[in-house]
């Protein structure tokens, strides 16, 4: 089984778990989205490795794609 079980689907059990969380009787074991930082560093790391000419070329292509008119 998973380490972090899903929250109950039964409304009564869900309400009890929410009250337990609010009163501090239980801890929320689900990871927060902010705690996962795996994908957040990729763009910055790539930008550091690129030369200014490469960054300019990529930006030009992106701008052309944004302003391209669809028929």
Shape: elongated
Main sheet characteristics = none
Ranges where pLDDT stays below 50 over 5 or more residues in a row are none
C-alpha end-to-end distance = 51 Å
A few lines on this structure:
The protein is an all-alpha fold.
Question: How would you sum up this structure, described in words?
Answer:
The chain has 71 residues and is an all-alpha fold. It contains three helices and no strands. The protein has helices at 11-23, 42-49, 52-67. It is elongated, with a radius of gyration of 23 Å. The mean pLDDT is 81.
Write the layout of secondary structure elements.
Blueprint: H1 11-23, H2 42-49, H3 52-67
Q: What are the defining features of this structure?
A:
71 residues, mainly alpha, 3 helices, 0% strand, elongated
